[in-house]
Structures are given as structure tokens and as C-alpha cells.
Amino acid sequence: MKSIVALLRQQTVGIVNLSLPILAFAYLNPALIQSTFGALACSLCIGLYLWYLNRTNTTNQMKILPYTPTGAHKELLESVITSCGVNPESVQLRYGYTYESIAMAINNMIIIDPLVCSAFEDDPEAIKIKNIVETHIFPVTPEPQKKRVQAVKQALSRDAQLFIFKHELGHVFYNYSSKKIALVSLIGAISAYVGITTSVALSNSLNGFAILVGLLAAGVTDLLLSYSSNYFFKAREEKNADIFAARHSTKNEIAAAADFFEEHQNILDTHKEQTLVAKIPGIILSGHPDGKTRANYLRKLS
């Protein structure tokens, strides 16, 4: 129940914050949003504002990760990037705690989590990240999450780690981050338009009831479109990244990745947190398919 409340609170705060500029304009110049053109213009502004916020947050995220692979680890990763037909100079490499994502891509940066990627854990820069996490993050981390991290590390072979790195390189190659930011902005603009037109349809004077219903309509639209985008857009991007990785991997690496994703699903099922949100299928909640489904299509690619 707590997870549902947290999700709804996050959704509500986001919608209210984005709605404040519209409400200000509505009271200063009611005619602005009472026309179709005005509603579209306001919604477009919200979409552009979301694009700016997400772009800025992404850039700031990249700036706070100073730990870069060194020595043989850096050489290995750069050789892998080259073998995939990508210029190593166009890709930034960093170590960081990914909260169970193993590795992740942000714009042209690939972040490797040394807490689960054992092939990189002895890099001096990786050790710095591990010390920070063990000192400041793990003491307040839920026990099921700690168990999952440890189990994932044991199941993640070197070949599987290389495949996952190539998967994230696929996201960089296909410019996934920019596409995602654009999609989030579009969803925000559509949700804002639904909220505005709902409020105006209920009352030309924009009383409190009309505004609350409009906010509710915008929030529900945003939630439904966000989950739909995970299923239709992010899941497709994940599959494309897997295909990219498989195209540049050996049969052993693909087989190791398939075995890992299967075992990873078993780990998630065994150490699952008992929350309502955790019961939502992963492909809807995050765009990631079930590990066993992913393993099956990887084996078909090898």
C-alpha cells in the first residue's frame, strides 16, 4: 500500500507543479485557455518545459559521476566499443551505483555498477564507488534489495557482463535517451491539454471543482500514457538494444546473457518485495520484459 501511495504522491506533485503556470495564466487572462489555440499553446509550453527539465536533469546526472574506468579495464571497454563499430571517443564511461540496473546509458554515457559487475570491481575507481555505497547507501537499503544485489553478482558471469555492456552501447548508438525525453515531453503536453480542456468544459469560470477534475484527468492521462509508452516504446528499444548486442557478441556471450536473464528473473521472484507496485508486470512498469521471455528470444538470435 505504501508503494501505491508513494506513486500517487509523486504523480500528484508532478501534475500540480506543472499546472501552476497554467492556473496563473488562467486567472490573469481566462480567454487564453478557453480557446482551442490557447489550450494547445499552453500544452506545448508545458511539453517544452518538461523537455528542458529532463534535458537539464540528465546533464546534471552526468556531471556528478567522476569515476572513470582506468588501465586494463578502460582498454577492454574501448576495444569492445570499437568492435561494435562505434568510435570510443564518442562514448563516456563511468562507474556508479545503478540501484539494481547493472549498467545503464544516459545520452552518450554508459554507467557500470561495480557492485554487481565483478569483472571491474578491482579497478581503483570502482573501489571508490563501492566504499561510498557500502558506507552511505547500504545501511538504509531494504534487506530484500541487498539480497538481490548479492545474488545478481553471483549469477552475473563475465560474458554476460560484456553482453549487457554492449546492450547499453546499443542505447547510445540508437540515441535512446533523446527519444525518451522527447516522448516524455509529448506525454506531458497531451496530459496538459486533456486537463485544460476538461476544466474548461466543466466551467468557463474555472472554479475549484473544475480545476480539481482537470488535474485528475491530466494525472490519469499522464499515468496511462507513461505505462503505455513503457509497453510499446521502451520495450521495443530494449529489444533493439539486445539485437544490437547480439549482432556484436559471440555465441558464448549470448548464451551467458540468456542464462543470466533467466536466473535474474528467478532472483527477482525469490526476493520480491511484497508491495502492490511489485505485482505490476515489469514490461508495463519499466519497459523490461520478463527475464525468461528475454532469454528465449536471445537464444533464438544466437
Radius of gyration over all CA atoms, rounded: 22 Å
Main sheet properties? 3 strands, mixed
Strand content: under 5%
Instruction: Give the count of helical stretches.
Output: 12
Count of strand segments? 3
Class of secondary structure makeup: mainly alpha
Helix content: over 70%
Query: What would the average pLDDT be, to the nearest integer?
Result: 87
Distance between the termini: 42 Å
Low-confidence stretches: none
Shape: elongated
Order of helices and strands: HHHHEEEHHHHHHHH
For the largest sheet, list the strands in their spatial order.
1-3-2
Could you describe the 3D structure shown?
- β2 and β3 form a beta hairpin.
- Helix content is 72%, strand content 4%.
- A 3-stranded mixed sheet has the order 1-3-2, with helices on both faces.
- The chain has 302 residues and is mainly alpha-helical.
- The chain starts with a helix and ends with a helix.
- It has 12 helices and 3 strands.
- The longest helix is centred in the C-terminal third of the chain and has 40 residues.
